[in-house]
Amino acid sequence: MKAREIREMSDDELKKALDDSKDELFRLKFQLATGQLDNPMRIKEVKRDIARVKTIIRQRELGISHA
């Protein structure tokens, strides 16, 4: 998920994307623990997506617009 795509989302869509990403991260970590994870790099990607979404949410809270 690119930052540009995230910035185009509404506030409700951002919250939904954050919840979905957190759920996916939980499932990935569970798969890792049970030895069923096929792509361990996906955990890193999901963590970065969560960070991006949280950053955009915080910027909106502070009223910071980004080009």
Overview of this structure, please?
With 67 residues, this protein is an all-alpha fold. The chain has a single domain (3-62), classed as Helix Hairpins (Orthogonal Bundle). It contains 3 helices and no strands. It has helices at 3-7, 11-34, 41-62. The radius of gyration is 14 Å and the shape is elongated. The mean pLDDT is 93.
Summarize the structure.
With 67 residues, the protein is mostly helical.
Q: What do we call the CATH topology? A: Helix Hairpins
Q: Return residue spans where pLDDT drops below 50 for at least 5 consecutive residues.
A: none
Radius of gyration: 14 Å
How many H/I helices? 3
Largest beta-sheet characterization? none
Q: How far is it from the N-terminal to the C-terminal residue, by CA?
A: 17 Å
Secondary structure tally: strands: 0
Run of helices and strands: HHH
Q: Roughly what percent helix?
A: over 70%
What portion of the residues fall into strands of 2 or more residues? under 5%
Which whole number gives the mean pLDDT? 93
**Coarse morphology:** elongated
Secondary-structure class: mainly alpha
CATH class: Mainly Alpha
Judging by the overall fold, what is the CATH architecture?
Orthogonal Bundle
Question: How many separate domains make up the residues?
Answer: 1
